[in-house]
Amino acid sequence: MGRLHAEEMILNMGPQHPSTHGVLRLKLTTDGEIVSKIEPVIGYLHRSFEKHAENLEYQMVTPFTGRCDYLAAMGSEHGYAMAVEKMMGIELPERVEYLRVVFAELQRIASHLVAVGTFGLDVGAITPFIYCFRERELILDLFEMASGARLLYNYIWIGGLAHDVPPGFVEKTYEFLDAFDKRVAEYNQILTGNKIFIERAADIGVMTPEVAINYGVTGPSLRASGVNIDIRKTQPYSIYDRFDFEIPLGEGLQGTVGDSWDRYYVRVLEMLESAKIIRQALDQLPVEGDVKSAIPKRIRPPKGEVYFRSENPRGELGYYIVSNGKNVPLRVKMRSPAFSNLSVINEIGQGFMISDVIAILGSLDIVLGEIDR
Amino acid sequence: MIQSLANWILSFDILSGLGYSISWGLSLFVVSALIFVFVAVNAIVLVYIERKVSAFMQVRLGPMRVGKFGMLQTVADALKLLQKEDIIPRMADKVLFIIGPWTILIASVVTFAAIPFSETLLAANMNIGLFYVVSISSIVVLGIVMAGWASNNKWSLYGAMRSAAQIISYEIPVGITLISVVAVVGSLNLQTIVQAQAGVGNLFHWIPIPLPNWFIFHSPFLFLAAFIYLIGATAEINRTPFDIPESESELVAGFMTEYSGLRWALFFLSEYANATLVAFLVAIVFLGGWQSPFADYQGAQVALAIMTLTAGMWTAFVKTKVGRLSIYPLGLSLALTLSAWLFPGFAIWLASPGLFWMIMKAATIIFLLMWFRWTFPRLRVDQLMYVSWKVILPISIMNLMGVAVWMWLTGEIQF
Questions:
Q1: H helices of B257-354, where?
Q2: pLDDT tens-place string over residues B337-373
Q3: What's the confidence (pLDDT) of residue A43?
Q4: Which of B51, B83, B115 is the C-terminal boundary of a domain?
């Protein structure tokens, strides 16, 4: 008898699949349950942001930035506004800077809550997801108070904010922060320390610092590998240098440094750090002040180009803007963190099982809107 | 039950002309129909309860719109499923696709024939009842493999393969734990097993705590066996944390992916039928079946008083997170105790065996299964196999030997 003929099977995961976080297609080459090759196919959520930006005035681009990373619209708007302001050399009122930091960090918590919750969902725990969304709802209520919208805000404008926060906003934010720390303890009880969860996440998809840096991975996924790079600390923008906060790093508490569990836990810790920043920003927030700086009605940055990086919940968000002196940008290039983060999946996911690939994908926390742009 | 029903039919003057065989056949039909109705209604009720339990655990309300407290929600869902278009994929293996779900359903329904719900409520008193239940319920895997293969979908195939591997590996430890009980009783008859657990005795034979003679309190080994059985059975019925064959977020419902409408409803029906079956089996084999936990009505009164005391202490001293809800156990046990002391008839009813206790025990186990489902993540397929072959199986084999040694030590058997 000859050897049993066995061949690898190509398994199409997505574009419609509950665990691909949007419309991502993964071509898995599988040998039984073991995955030998992962080929991400993207482009199903392409909204031609960059082409749009080339045909719109500078102010008009702001709402489109939020549509890229729809789970962190405040962060995307913040980065874009800062990039244009850097080009034009606009000085901002103190109150704007503080409020922007409050919103960006609230957005970071909201985004990480989705990441943590859906990671739980990917490994089969349904209840933590609902708990996370319960808190996210409170943040969305705050956003709704300020901007009137719950997902895409168009609130952080070039040269300021759309309008000031309503009365009672600061008190409500304090209320949320007071409740939030206890809620994180709840997540740790139900998910972080769960034996099955640790079995599923620890030592899965280990990303060494070298691999992470070579693939351009940024954000919590990079810091989980033990690389201490956070633009808020290394190249402080806005007013981040005024706050006292830690950068959580992956320590391999349950397995190897840089495994899925680390990527998950770094996000949990980052939420607490963000809460710390918000508390400090609210304490220092100037009570009086304008939320719009004097800028011309038509924004015409001087000829030239700018690259501005900021730390989005998913990693380093870069805007490369070229201006030819008109009121429409010549080119807006967005360096989206999740795109680079996704590219590493073939490297770290090979040799694991199908269920692990889903866990790894969940731990990378991708948003397809931002990958396809 | 069939026998007595047949005799009852013949006892009417008008019907006595039917003859024994026709009356027997009629009774058989009635009893089978009753079992099927039980399974169907049970699924509808359990789906509602599961949704409410999960809602309670996830700080939400659950179904609230259809009927009072959404009680008719599952009925409405069932009606919707019946109306849906019946889709068979073009490339599917038609015959297997159709008989797959029916195989699963039939396998899970017919097991109920051997389950003694009370002293008299029992469709067929088989001398090999336990063996019958275990062997018939393992036919389910056949249906799952059929459904997964016939769907002609890679995800379904994965689900079916995982399911086959999982159910077969967990059947062994489950079987061995059940054998350890059979070793104590010396019979496979489920009714005999229940009857062997009557009365009150010491915990683990020697420790002087009066507890019912249930097998879970028989010896440390059977105590462990009960938990092993529960774990193994959870895996056998594909529930979280062992819901790997249908894992929603991985395999997109696995072998059920291509099914819709009525056929899909059949999977659901059998899933809940299996969960109920496991709950009943745990109750019968380890928790005394339809036996009351109280020896006599005084025992019931004393036990309830102790329960109230415990609940009171729990409420008073233990800080609980449920807040307002923490007084409910105290209120409930206080009400029970008061009525047991004031109305001895109630205490006597509590102390008598019957359907009530059987359902209470099964309901507790079902709640436990739901609790697992809504709090645990899912294991990976290789971890599942690890748990089965390297953890549970050795423990259950040791257990079986331990039970034998224990019985020799306590003098239950002599050589």
A1: 261-286, 297-317, 327-342, 344-351
A2: 787 777 777 777 777 777 888 888 899 999 988 888 8
A3: 85
A4: B83
- Helical segments of B318-342, H only: 327-342
Q: Can you tell me the distance from the alpha carbon of B309 to that of B332, in angstroms, rounded to the nearest whole number?
A: 12
Rounded mean pLDDT of A297-304? 84
CB contact under 8 A, A200 and B379: yes
The CATH number of the domain covering residues in A57-337: 1.10.645.10
Residues B76 and B94 in one domain: no
What are the tokens at A302? 């001087």
Q: What is the mean pLDDT of residues A306-326?
A: 89
- The answer to whether the CB of B315 falls within 8 A of the CB of B327 is yes
Enumerate the domain spans of chain A: 57-337
Cα–Cα separations (whole angstroms), residue B134 to A111, B107, B131, B277: 48, 11, 5, 10
Residue B376: what pLDDT?
A: 86
**Residues B377, A200: C-beta atoms closer than 8 Å:** yes
Which chain B residue has its CA at the smallest distance from A199's CA?
B379
Residue length, chain A?
Answer: 373
Range of the domain at B30: 1-83
A positions 318-357 inside 8 Å of B (CB): 353-356
B414 — pLDDT class (breaks 50, 70, 90):
low
State the nearest Cα–Cα gap between B147 and chain A, in angstroms. 19
Could you tell me the pTM of the whole model?
0.84
> In this model, does residue A1 exceed pLDDT 60?
no
Instruction: From A238, A252, A216, select the one nearest A92 (Cα to Cα).
Output: A238
Q: Indicate the DSSP class of residue A243.
A: S
In this structure, are B216 and B160 located in the same domain?
yes
Give the minimum alpha-carbon distance from A348 to chain B in angstroms, rounded to a whole number. Answer: 18
Helix (H) or strand (E) holding A11: strand A9-13
**pLDDT surpasses 80 at B199:** no
Secondary structure of B343-365 in HEC code, one letter for each residue: CHHHHHHHHCCCHHHHHHHHHHH
The amino acid occupying position B405 is V
User: What's the pLDDT score for residue B65?
Assistant: 86
Cβ burial of B193 (10 Å; 0-12, 13-18, 19+) is buried
- Best B234, B378, B390 member to test A by mutation, with max A CBs in 10 Å, is B378
Q: Is B13 on the interface with A (CB under 8 A)?
A: no
Chain A residues near residue B54 by CB distance under 8 angstroms: 126-127
Residue A294 exposure: Cα atoms within 13 Å on the Cβ side: 0
Q: Which two three-digit tokens encode residue B382?
A: 């290789």
Q: Which position has the higher pLDDT, A14 or A224? A: A224
Cβ of B207: how many Cβ atoms within 10 Å? 9
Backbone angles phi, psi at B210, to 5 degrees: -70, 120
Residue B382 lies in a domain: yes
